[in-house]
Fold this sequence. Notes:
mainly alpha; Malate Synthase G, Chain: A, Domain 4
Amino acid sequence: MTIAIAPKITLYDRDVNLWVEDTIAKLKAGDLQGLDVEHLIEELESLAGRDKREILSRLKRLIEHILKRCYVKLPDCYRGWEITIINQRDELNEMLSQSPSLKQYFLQGFDDAFKKALRLVKTEYCEVAFPDTWQFSHDIDSMLNVDFWE
């Protein structure tokens, strides 16, 4: 007869938020021996990946709305697109100020974000002749500050 041994269920498995609070308390107390290092590494890697994905997602949305504002002649929609542009820029500025090393993902991901945004706007506004290449400066300062449609 074989006896099955149930896997040990950790605090991390039961409640991630409680695990985070417990980990913070252990770090503050200097209790490095009590740390769940495996899950701590996993969470830190996940955090870094999430920030990279968010930069690229916000960049794609920013490009999408700049394209709409520049090429789609629907004046009643301009304000909404401009508000989205302002919001995306504010969020990107905040993320890049907090973590300047994320700027490399902004720059590296620009072409891919443009292609994805272009595919979206071409599908949404199939009658509009969008350019197949980005027609403006795509450095970070320009993308976060210039109103290309003026």
